[in-house]
Amino acid sequence: MVLVFAALVVAMGLWAQDREAEMAAVLAAPASASHRVRVGDVRLELRGVYVLDGLLWFSLRVSNGSVIDWRGSPMRILIRDRRVWKRRARQELTLATAMRRETLLVRSDSAVALCYGLAPRLPGKGQDLVLEWRERNGDRRISLRLDRKDILHSKKLDRYASR
Question: What is 2-156's CATH number?
Answer without folding.
Answer: 2.60.40.1150
